[in-house]
Write a structure and sequence with these properties.
Blueprint: E1 4-8, H1 15-20, E2 23-26, E3 29-32, E4 35-38, H2 45-53, E5 58-61, H3 65-78, E6 82-86, H4 94-108, E7 114-118, H5 123-138, H6 143-155, E8 157-162, H7 166-171, H8 177-186, E9 188-195, E10 198-206, H9 208-222, E11 230-235, H10 239-253, E12 257-262, H11 265-271, E13 276-281
Parallel strand pairs: 1-2, 1-6, 6-7, 11-12
Antiparallel strand pairs: 3-4, 3-5, 8-9, 8-13, 9-10, 11-13
Function: May bind long-chain fatty acids, such as palmitate, and may play a role in lipid transport or fatty acid metabolism.
GO molecular function: lipid binding
Keywords: Lipid-binding
């Protein structure tokens, strides 16, 4: 009996792609002026990002325990061993909601095999962890092998990204209002990464082209065996920018395989249109 993989929409892989991998995805809630939407279901990223460019402000909310409980109960009745791969607990309470639901479901189904893993990853970095686990599940790998792989990839996944407008990070409490204002005037583009599941600024440059070049430099500094890795790229409704970054990575570092995806609503509500990120491993084999 193959392992069933479950994840949430912060992995920024399309529902169609996840369905092709036999991965179940639970949507994160997104709100606009008090109205609730489901990430990727009742609200598409491109529509949200277009509205953000027009000045609309979206907010997000963690998936509540009752949603997870219903999902876990359905899977428990089927009987497959399951792994829920979760969005970083440093950025959302969704992981903790899943833990609460798991305890309640195990009271009803004590023999249900359900592992919940906090990846401390986000967006396509998170998506790469999910993708690799799903491929192992399709190949019939064991429960223990898949869990080991998820934890290793999550621990060694690098997230390097920039945003086009600091205003969105200000709204999310990531930068001060002054920094956002001055940055907008001077065309400053921050370079950020994820450390212990949280967003951390590591550099800033002026202009988008310089930001891309700096991102490639950091990939070179931190990555290993990059020409043989699957490299993730995300974008905030800016496929042209994503392809420019891809071309730079091919030219400068010899990268060959890419997974490119638009950011979902859960991530995009905080990073905004024009976000651009690259995701890769800093270690690809265990000692």
């Amino acid at each position: 009996m193959n392992v069933k993989i479950i994840t949430d929409s912060a992995c920024d892989l399309t529902r169609e792609f996840l369905a092709s991998l036999d991965v179940d995805v639970v949507p994160i809630m997104v709100y606009l002026e008090g109205e609730e939407y489901l990430d990727g279901l009742t609200l598409k990223p491109e529509d949200m990002l277009r509205q953000m460019r027009e000045g609309k402000v979206f907010k997000t909310s963690q998936i509540p325990p009752n949603i997870f409980k219903e999902k876990f109960q359905q899977l428990a009745q089927i009987g497959n061993p399951c792994i829920y791969i979760a969005f970083s607990s440093g950025l959302s309470g969704t992981y903790n909601s899943a833990l609460i639901a798991r305890e309640e479901v195990l009271e009803e189904f004590p023999n249900f095999k359900l592992e919940i893993i906090d990846t401390k990853c986000a967006s396509v970095g998170f998506g790469l962890v999910v993708y690799k686990a799903a491929m192992m599940a399709k190949e019939g790998k064991s429960y223990e092998e898949i869990i080991k792989n998820i934890k290793f990839n999550a621990q060694h996944m690098e997230h390097i990204f920039t945003v086009d407008d600091l205003e969105y990070l200000y709204r999310g409490g990531r930068v001060s209002k002054t920094a956002a204002f001055v940055g907008g005037i001077l065309n400053v583009k921050p370079i950020l990464h994820v450390e212990d599941g949280k967003l951390i600024p590591i550099d800033k440059v002026r202009g988008r082209q310089k930001a891309m070049k700096r991102m490639v430099e950091i990939v070179k500094e931190r990555g290993v065996d990059l020409e043989n890795q699957l490299i993730g790229i995300n974008h905030g409704d800016d496929l042209e920018g994503a392809n420019k970054l891809k071309n730079l990575l091919e030219l400068e570092l010899g990268c060959k395989d890419f997974l490119i995806s638009c950011i979902g609503c859960a991530i995009g509500a905080h990073s905004g249109p024009g976000t651009l990120g690259v995701f890769f491993l800093n270690k690809i084999t265990e000692n």
